[in-house]
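pinned: reference chain
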Amino acid sequence: MNDRIDEYRAAYARLKADPQGSLIDARPAIFSPAIAAQDEHNPKTALKRFGPQYLVHEFTNWTEEALAHSESCYLGDWSGLAKVVVTGPDAHAFLSWLGMNDLSRFEIGRIKHHVQLDEQGFVASEGVLVRRGEQEFQYTAGSGDWLLWRLAQGEWDAEAVDVSPERFVFGVQGPRSIGVLEAALGASLRDLAFNRFRPASLDGLAVEVLRTGISGELGYEIHGPAEAANDVWRRLRDAGGPFGLRELGLRSQSVQHIESGIATNGLDYFPSSAVTPGKAWQFRQGGVGGSFVPSAFSDYFRRPGELGWDVRGDLSHEFLGRDALIAEREAGGSARVLMGLVWNAEDVAEVLTAPLRAGDEPLPEPMELPRLQGPTFDTVLVDGRAVGVSSGRALSPALRAMISLVAIERSLAVVGTEVIVVWGAPGTAQRELRATVAALPFKPDRRRVDVTAA
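pinned: its structure tokens
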């Protein structure tokens, strides 16, 4: 197993050094540490890339898997996320400076959504920060490069180590998730509050249980050593049978984020760290879909106010990007805010069924279901004027609707506002589709449901 970890680490380093290299030369297939267990239920044998790893694309069918977090629960794999452990006397001070969140009352055993900005106030990275000890933290995110780079620029008495290859991250989310975990662990989790974590033992394997809520429902994460991933996956899967648990493939994985109103790094915006000096652009050229045409790559960047995160920033403490946020707040706040869009069902049906209709009219760009596996940005119009950018278009089986997020002008961020979404990349037979502004989240927020009385 150690040889496998070493190979994984080396391949992971090559991927970060040359993200646009060829698949064979620079990006050898790196599979989830639980791939053996997952392959037991992968009759379609399709894999898709998530960060540095390849995950099962679909276990059964995407509608069933996309419904699981609403109706029962799922078991999903986020092991491809970066995991950076920060230790040392200055670890807390550094992380407090790096993130806009106030960490003054960040106790051991707590979890924080850590939003990291650049000097201009753009989001450079964001993820989950766990405090394991007085001088020990773990940051889990789409990338840990910004943290590593900023630490190296200063003189902090702290050390950061990328442990991504050594750790797995599984999600168990949905109203019945607590039953699955209690059955697997043989212990109660009723006292584990939202945004808390604790060590646990699963058949003698040391793991960590985090209560999180990426699905907008009651949910948990299980973290542990990569060498135990197959055993843990099988144990959770088997324990979940009586609770209607479904294994979640990558195809449906991000539908829940849109339902919950959560903007995803690399899908709904690009972090400004993508152009960090001395590092490669981490997004592949030509890999961005949609009708939106940026004037510069920075048009994909977002400030926290445009992502619904401005209220999480306590501007009383010193942090990178603070001056930019103060200036923005004094000017009245961000020019755009994050809202939802519900796309007109008839207009969507016209696009989906266009290949079935006779005639010579050019076909519009097809809509992948439930969503495009990659970043996509579409121009939003009101009276012919561009007023925002839609992202993350997804067909939600739970809502029976096509939905998306939209960064829209503040004056138009009113529930019920009618807009037009330009569908199709430039050069295709573009269509104008009607949509209506909606509140976020699309579904009731059940992340903090009280489980103590159950």
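why pinned: The first strand starts at residue 47 and ends at 50. The CA atoms of residues 91 and 419 lie 46 Å apart.
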